[in-house]
Design goal:
Layout (H helix, E strand, L loop, with lengths): L1 H14 L18 H27 L4 H8 L4 H13 L1 H67 L1
Helix pairs in contact: 2-3, 2-5
């Protein structure tokens, strides 16, 4: 129990250390705007989810997720890492970036759900139409078969 208390005291002391002792990272040469960081992190999140769902589809299509993102935004991993470190130093700015990503993800989710609902509705209507047409076609085909059999029987009896 005493050891636990000592550990808690040590962590408390480290928590009280003045942030001014921590060196603020330099502004990167290729500073990415906060808006662009939102877009990059948003795309990285989508790619990460896609990898989790079915990585083989991405691989089969020759998509290497990180390379795709870096190429799309004309950056490399070093530029991203420097900017990520720079923005993450100020937790308020970093939190605002992630809040924007979260908002975009929610909008995207709503858009996708709306699209799925529309697709389901159209699919249901299309299915009903196809079933109705099949019944009509089946009746026509059965009628044609019956007529053909009657004609064959008439020919055979004559």
């Amino acid at each position: 129990m005493k050891k636990l208390n000592y550990i808690l005291i040590i962590f408390s002391l480290f928590g009280c250390v003045n942030n001014s002792l921590i060196e603020h990272p330099n502004v990167p040469e290729d500073l990415i705007s906060q808006e662009k960081m939102v877009d990059i992190i948003y795309d990285m999140t989508l790619i990460s989810v896609a990898k989790g769902v079915n990585k083989s589809i991405l691989e089969n299509n020759g998509i290497i997720p990180e390379e795709y993102i870096f190429k799309k935004y004309s950056i490399d991993s070093v530029i991203f890492a420097e900017n990520n470190e720079y923005y993450s130093f100020d937790l308020k700015i970093y939190q605002s970036i992630y809040d924007e990503v979260k908002i975009k993800l929610k909008k995207n989710k709503k858009l996708i759900n709306d699209s799925i609902n529309i697709a389901r509705k159209l699919s249901g209507e299309l299915s009903k139409k196809l079933i109705k047409e099949r019944k009509i076609n089946k009746i026509s085909v059965d009628t044609i078969k019956f007529d053909s059999i009657n004609k064959i029987n008439l020919i055979n009896t004559n």
